[in-house]
Amino acid sequence: MDAFNQLSIKSLRLLVAVLEHGSFSEVARREAMSPSTVSRTIQQMEQVLQTQLLYRNTRAVVATQAGEMLGVHARRIMEQLEEAAEGLQEKESDPRGRIRINAPVVFAERHLAPWLFELGERYPRLQIELMQTDDFIDPLQDATDLLIRIGVMTDSTLQARTLAQQRFRLVVSPSYLKRYGMPSSPQDLSQHSCLVFKGFAGSQRWFFRKDSDVWQPYSFQGKLTGNNAQTLTQAAISGMGFALFPTWLIGEALREGQLVEALTDYQVSTSLEPQTISALYPNSRRLSNKVRAVIDFLLDKYGQPAYWDR
């Protein structure tokens, strides 16, 4: 414990920066100091802790296991200090500082990117850092302020605000219908080409129900199975078969007539549980002014129901 008491906030901040950028020289440039000063600060930390924090070579520096562990705690300390500073400035009306947002790739392209300019104009003191990935991330370890995630929300370690409900439609192109006709029931789809999403858990099942009946699962096959929703959507538009996707993805194609709804008497989904598009942040953090502002902005822009469902 005595060794940790000798670590300064400045040294921890430099360690986090080196871990993020993988370079003494890059951190030195950003911090307006010499690379040797940055390197010497890390060496002093290693001497105090009596353990190696970084592997050094001519191209980059990489964290050791001890360095990664200390980096996680150092990031939390930096975040807590940042939250404390924000709390002192909470009386100011305009959100300020860097906000780190992580969102799914395609959803961010469709429904975040078009609004970023207006968000920046509304809050000029806000610095937006947007990372796009479909992989799960730990917001505490990855220093993320706000996660946008889609599906069934189950992680109790995160607070959530629902931005929109995720609704599905079974769709097909007019050209496919002209050639093969419209099925009259889910069972009839077995005689058609279905374009099925296949992820790490296998091929997606499609669920159908009429009115308040019990959901019925179906497994279909067709000319194309894949793990990219945009590719499958484009294949459906070109006339390869039926697809079942959320309205935020296919809403534009429906409005433009590139796709039409099929089996409109049925409700459709890819799971038995309700799915949402949600804004998530860690339970351990106070909802900061900047995070609240971004969530409220998105809620205002998406509307109820969301504009892609209108």
UniProtKB/TrEMBL annotation:
InterPro entries per the UniProt record, alphabetical: LysR-type_TF_proteobact-type, LysR_HTH_N, LysR_subst-bd, WH-like_DNA-bd_sf, WH_DNA-bd_sf
Protein family according to the UniProt entry: Belongs to the LysR transcriptional regulatory family.
Keywords attached to this entry: DNA-binding, Transcription, Transcription regulation
Keyword NADP: no
Stated name of the protein: LysR family transcriptional regulator
Gene3D superfamilies in the record: 3.40.190.290, Winged helix-like DNA-binding domain superfamily/Winged helix DNA-binding domain (1.10.10.10)
Keyword set includes Transcription: yes
Residue span, HTH lysR-type domain: 7-64
